[in-house]
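Q&A log
Question type: sequence-to-structure
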Amino acid sequence: MIDFTPVQLERYSRHILLQDVGVEGQMKFLEAKVLIVGAGGLGAPAAMYLAAAGIGTIGIVDSDTVDISNLQRQIVHFTKDIDVPKVDSAKETMLAINPDIEIRTYRECLVAANIRDIISGYDFVVDGTDNFPTKFLVNDACVMENIPYSHGGILRFDGQTMTVVPGESACYRCSFRKPPPPDAVPTCSQAGVLGAIAGMLGTIQAAETLKYITGVGDLLTNTLLSFNAKSMDFRKVPLSKQENCPVCGENPSITELFDAEQAVCNLQEARVKEECSG
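Response status: OK
Response body:
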């Protein structure tokens, strides 16, 4: 049981006033542990809202440093942070928003060899990655470790997200069996992305995280939510858990984690890929 200080009662008053959250829900936030994979376009708004909400322990994984091209959408970083490790920049901003919380940083590439150790002990994972191989790796590791997570992806004016609760709902591989071939789908650095799209999607992922922790509302399980900002059309596509899914099915063929080939589209990504493979 957490005893709120007068400052905390004031800080979290709008949550405490909510009938479906209240004191008990805020306690759950403060006791929760959430891992954010990627301090980029999706991870940035998710990190800020989860920090503001009072998630007690937030881990953040990213091997990269802040580049000026990131600042158009990665709102957890500022101009002064150029060339600073993203995890350090994000930590500084998150603690500036809320010094109550603990931030754990992992300045490393998330690969098959380390992902299970990193995600172990967290209650929920937010996937803010920008490449398919890592998205599948996050899915597979979360399924194997029985950790729920939020998937998110953005490109140009579009976004999509789903929430996976292992053992209960469809996982990412139930609908998307394997990553597309390298260079088959353009990345944001190749095709571009409207900065606000990242904010829209990352905020939805933060909301799904808070809903899971409190048990309030209906999660985006067995549902792929997609939207297009040009038309502001939102669409829900029903999904179902597949018995023959290679990772969460009745007889899974994927029982060990592995690193799939990843496309490289610029010099900065080439450097990061070299570091991750070395």
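Response note: The chain has eleven helices and eight strands.
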